[in-house]
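for the recovery benchmark. tokens below, seq after
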């Protein structure tokens, strides 16, 4: 997509001279008389980031996870663990970005039919390539699925498609350098993925109710017998109650620390009990 600029698209962002309306927060929201926690400040930084910066972060994270898949496949070894990690990120972060951008960008370029059509084709192409990787993971290198060489080629093709697509969206220059990131409109910052996917999660790094939601979503994705330890400077009782309400009996919760300055719980996904036959 070339030859299209923010001036061609219109002033949905309010023009370059008005970009600040997306980023100017009341002073009280930043300080409110007291210093905010690092997690809150990081959240504000993510909200203030541009779409171009968000794209760069997404591309780096996908490339970091794709490279081990390509390297192992090129050596003739089926990269089951790296492929699973790549697919987790693609489903949880990349596909979410596509959905968010369909709302964010399509409403801005809706009166430029060729641009809308190209964006939709790009998103569909990316989804289809991710489906190919899903199918490859399901076959685990068996003769019924793609070979290591084919998997390497599919993964390389994904990187090429994603890089081209993100560059095309940057080239649209919607709002110039100040087109807001999806996090500006309430989407979960991509930086949080690394903070929630490990075996230890520090809730203090994930600000507000959205941070608690992100941790809850991580717990709901746990595999059977997988364990995660969560720490916080606040009581974790409400998070544990929410987890129990969503899946009663599905998790074991063990308190490792009970305050007054720090709380820590170990949460383990229990095996599903076999249903008894009538």
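predicted aa per position
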């Amino acid at each position: 997509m070339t030859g299209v600029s923010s001036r061609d698209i219109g002033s949905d962002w309010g023009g370059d001279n008005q970009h600040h309306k997306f980023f100017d927060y009341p002073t009280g929201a930043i300080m409110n008389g007291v210093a905010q926690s690092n997690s809150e400040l990081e959240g504000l930084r993510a909200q203030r980031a541009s779409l171009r910066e968000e794209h760069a972060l997404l591309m780096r994270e996908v490339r970091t996870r794709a490279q081990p898949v390509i390297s192992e496949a090129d050596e003739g070894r089926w990269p089951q663990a790296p492929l699973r990690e790549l697919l987790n990120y693609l489903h949880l972060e990349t596909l979410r970005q596509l959905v968010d951008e369909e709302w964010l960008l399509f409403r801005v370029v809706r009166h430029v039919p060729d641009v809308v059509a190209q964006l939709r084709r790009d998103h569909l192409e990316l989804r289809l390539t991710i489906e190919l990787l899903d199918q490859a993971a399901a076959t685990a290198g068996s003769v019924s699925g793609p070979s290591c060489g084919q998997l390497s080629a599919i993964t390389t093709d994904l990187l090429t498609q994603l890089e081209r697509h993100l560059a095309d969206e940057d080239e649209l220059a919607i709002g110039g350098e100040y087109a807001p990131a999806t996090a500006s409109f309430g989407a979960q910052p991509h930086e949080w993925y690394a903070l929630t996917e490990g075996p230890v999660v520090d809730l203090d790094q994930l600000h507000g109710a959205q941070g608690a939601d992100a941790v809850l979503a991580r717990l709901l994705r746990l595999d059977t017998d997988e364990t995660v330890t969560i720490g916080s400077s606040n009581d974790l009782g409400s998070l544990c109650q929410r987890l129990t309400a969503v899946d009663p009996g599905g998790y074991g919760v063990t308190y490792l620390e009970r305050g007054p300055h720090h709380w820590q719980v170990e949460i383990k996904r229990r095996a599903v009990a076999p249903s008894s036959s009538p």
